[in-house]
Amino acid sequence: MRGRRLLVPLLGLLLAGCGGGGYEGYKWRPYSVRGVHYEPIHPKSAVGFTETGTASHFDESWLFFFPGKSALGENQWSWSRAAAHKTLPLPCRVRITNLRNGRTATVRVNDRGPFIPGRIIDVTPPVAKQLGFYEAGLAPVRVEVLSVGDGRHKIR
């Protein structure tokens, strides 16, 4: 019985670390990175938006015990299925299509980036593997916004 009393609070602490960033609504205010100014798309204009360009993936496997934080303040684990985009409102769901092989993935965009010229979206390793470009590192893709926001703030 004593072990259970210790297990429940420890489990609660562990699960608390898996939650969202505590934001409300959307994140779409203008911002600057390294002297470059970005104007995110308004949430009501984003659904149906499409873009074609180069995708890359970022590997945070070294963060196995220490997650990174997304622009929304959410934990970013090495096994997370997420993406980063410079101008889409956060959060949003997108369908990414690898134009080389036709593979698709539906992903939640919860971060900003990639801040490397010529790239339009950054995905986590599980998404890059699903799309078939993990080994290559880069792929030509089409990104289509399916919805914006979460819960009661969702726009389809």
Describe this structure in words.
The longest helix is centred in the first third of the chain and has 15 residues, at 2-16. The model is unreliable at 3-21 (pLDDT under 50). The strands form three sheets. The protein has a six-stranded mixed β-barrel. It has a two-stranded antiparallel sheet with strand order 1-2. Strands 4-5 form a two-stranded antiparallel sheet. The protein is 17% helix and 34% strand. The chain is α+β, with helices and mostly antiparallel strands. It has three helices and ten strands; from the N terminus they run H-E-E-H-E-E-E-E-E-E-E-H-E. The chain starts with a helix and ends in an 8-residue tail after the last strand. It has a single domain, classed as Barwin-like endoglucanases (Beta Barrel), CATH 2.40.40. The radius of gyration is 17 Å and the shape is globular. It has helices at 2-16, 43-46, 125-131; strands spanning 31-33, 36-38, 50-57, 68-69, 75-76, 82-85, 92-98, 104-111, 119-123, 138-148. Strand 1 (31-33) and strand 2 (36-38) form a beta hairpin.
